[in-house]
Amino acid sequence: MIKAGIYGATGYAGAELIKILSSHSEVEVLFAASKTYAGMDLNSIHPDAPNILLQDTEKADLHQADIVFLCLPSSKGMSIVVDALQAGVKVIDLSADFRLNDAIEFKNWYGTSHVAPDLLSEAVYGLSEANRSKLVGAKLIANPGCYPTSVLLPIWPLIINSILDNSRPIIVDSKSGVSGAGRSPKQHLHFVEVSGNFQPYKIGRVHRHVPEMEQQLSNWGSSIPELIFTPHLLPVPRGILSTIYLPIKPGHKEHDIRAIFSKTFSDEPFIKLLPSGQNASLAHVLHSNICVFGVNLTRDTLIITSAIDNLVKGAAGQAVQNMNIMYGFTETCGLK
Ligand SMILES: NC(=O)c1ccc[n+]([C@@H]2O[C@H](COP(=O)([O-])OP(=O)(O)OC[C@H]3O[C@@H](n4cnc5c(N)ncnc54)[C@H](OP(=O)(O)O)[C@@H]3O)[C@@H](O)[C@H]2O)c1
After folding, report:
1. Domain shared by 181 and 304, yes or no
2. N or C: which end of the chain has fewer CB within 10 A?
3. What is the pLDDT of residues 271-330, one digit of tens each?
4. Is 291 a catalytic residue?
5. Where would I find the beta strands (DSSP E) of the chain?
């Protein structure tokens, strides 16, 4: 058994992670840390979570852990990452702090200087299916953002098989449930503002997930289409549905493209390619670590529908999948 510590345990991602880890046969939860609720039980805050006493973040015994998961807002956990790695403790960071490999880009997008720029090149981007070999034995994993997970997984096989026409943009229209914005109260997330409403935000190229996605696309292909990305706030608690419009080189048929997806993902336990004519929905994926795709070719535009649960495949579930790969555990352990 390995010992895991969780920072940000009372947040949506942290509580989901503890729920998953509590049924994982290879992991013991050593501590669940909180600044605000230390001394209380986690299930007094999240009634569906296990009964774990929350420890003060400052007093959590980092040095006794084999691995720590950071489920904190961006930039709030960087110094814990540095301390953990110095103590020989492995880290999976669910925030965006180690996703971009350039400290200047990080400052431009997140508005704060990186405290450990030298670690950016060491961090492995934890898109499990695409980066599996690099995750084995990794010390620091940057868990991907929720929107990027839903978008990058179906685009990856198309880029590595040179199917895309780089002269036209990829257009992504994503919708997320409200838990994607975290648990801290914000006026635009109040029930009255969200319920019965549906709206886009950060339209085009201004959301922080744009550089994260473009960095990955560039790792897979020397020339890539521009990315236009518009997220929407969906009035449901959880789930992401991304509709992705991909420019395809002339001459491809839907069955060729389906064959590429089948070849890439046939052995993947958490990827489900839907049969022709069916499309992804939140109902396919809620509370699971599955990413489901629907594939539709209209002239020279491929329209993919991709759905995940933002708190599972988009956060805590993928973090556990990455931990399983990191340690050589069965990849599905705790997740099925
Ligand atoms: N929600 C998602 O769908 C999702 C998906 C992928 C990645 N992520 C990333 O995962 C991380 C956690 O997300 P979340 O949605 O779980 O957020 P959240 O619900 O807001 O929880 C974050 C937790 O961190 C602690 N915290 C808040 N402010 C803090 C501060 N200034 N200093 C130290 N601790 C603080 C809080 O717990 P205490 O007050 O109890 O300490 C809070 O419960 C974020 O970086 C987020 O971007 C989230």
Report:
1. yes
2. N
3. 999 999 999 999 999 999 999 999 999 999 999 999 999 999 999 999 999 999 999 999
4. no
5. 2-7, 27-34, 54-56, 67-70, 90-93, 124-125, 140-142, 170-176, 199-200, 227-233, 240-247, 271-273, 291-298, 301-308
Amino acid at 319: A
pLDDT in tens, 217-252: 999 998 899 999 999 999 999 999 999 999 999 999
Residue 152 belongs to domain spanning:
147-310
Token pair, residue 240, equals 């992401």
**How many whole angstroms separate alpha carbon 232 and alpha carbon 30?**
37
Count of the separate structural domains present in the chain: 2
Residue 221 CA, chain-centre distance (Å), reads: 21
Pocket test for ligand 1, best of 37, 43, 58, 72 (most atoms within 8 A of CB): 72
The two tokens of residue 304 are: 């993919």
C-alpha closest to that of 91 among 82, 100, 99 = 82
Q: Compute φ and ψ for 319, nearest 5 degrees.
A: -60, -40
CATH number at residue 69: 3.40.50.720
Is 193 within a domain? yes
Q: Whose CA is nearest to atom 12 of ligand 1?
A: 71
